[in-house]
UniProtKB/TrEMBL annotation:
Species in which this protein is naturally found: Kineococcus halophytocola
InterPro entries: ChyE-like, Class_I_gatase-like, GATASE
Pfam families: GATase
NCBIfam families associated with the record: PRK07567.1 (NF005743)
Record-given protein name: Glutamine amidotransferase
Amino acid sequence: MRPFLLLATREDDAVAASEVAAFVREGGLGPGELERVRLERRPLPRLDLDAYSGVVLGGSPYCTSDPETAKSAVQRRVEADLSALLDEVVARDVPFLGACYGIGTLGVHRGGTVDREHAEPVGTVPVELTGAGRQDPVFGGLPDVFDAYVGHKEALRATPPGAVLLATSAPCPVQAFRVGRNVYATQFHPELDAEGFVERCGVYRDEGYFDPAEFDALAARLRLSTAPFAPQVWRRFVARYARD
């Protein structure tokens, strides 16, 4: 099988390793079936997208909606690299899944607006499929409403022009959309389980996602939570696009 490619931006090595492990586990992938480029460490190399089954862009400590003057030189370079890659991905309709930071990145690329109006606190949220989502080849096998892990300071205000809204929630109107036939994005995390989310919250406890003094209580709540259907988005994406 041609590998999938994970584009990552997490500076913390432990979280970066856990992210890879989560995408491998929840995607049902084997050794060598997920390659990774850590964009926070080096510029995006020239890619032959035909060498991959698909591309996934994971979450990030970066915020797309931050003023340009507040972004580091690394973040600005990462965003420029991703924008250039998405030019090709969208033009060729290459299989792509952007999660959390990935939905904002793809959304802005397609002319959408990301701001702080529809942020969601850390935890689970009921995600509801739209009519288009119920008919979609990746999302269509899921329950009409399912819980998913979220935690983000920014979100799309509305579906980008020309995109198809696949899923929504009460606090965040754009939980998933599709561009063309094969380019997807989710606001929720399709790779996380409860323990993985607790670990990630521990690393980012001082980054404004929640009150650090409430971490222990938050971790206890997360460990009691489940979101078994959200990872099926990633697994169904892998099953649909895996190719020799």
